[in-house]
Design a protein that fits this description.
alpha+beta; three-stranded antiparallel β-sheet; 3 helices; 3 strands; globular
Length: 83
């Protein structure tokens, strides 16, 4: 079964929880890495747009886009989330 935007959001929040428990102030998330860890990437039916949508939806005002593809969604999207 292909991951949904909600699946990506849950997985990213799980990553936040781990980083908080480790005492980190921020975490850098790269869409390609998250998608590979959750599964179904890099096949024909990948869900990269859903992964990027999830990443953007979890941003707060003090989070930073470190790198983004020209169209905004792709495997190189990198966001620094303040924890």
């Amino acid at each position: 079964m292909l991951p949904t935007t909600e699946d990506f959001e849950k997985f990213i929040r799980f990553k936040f929880d781990i980083a908080i428990k480790e005492g980190k102030d921020y975490i850098d998330i790269v869409s390609g890495d998250i998608h590979r860890e959750l599964g179904e990437y890099a096949g024909e039916n990948h869900r990269m747009p859903c992964c990027c949508d999830a990443m953007y939806s979890l941003m707060k005002s003090d989070d930073i886009i470190i790198d983004a593809p020209k169209k905004g969604k792709g495997a190189t999207l990198k966001i620094r989330y303040k924890l």
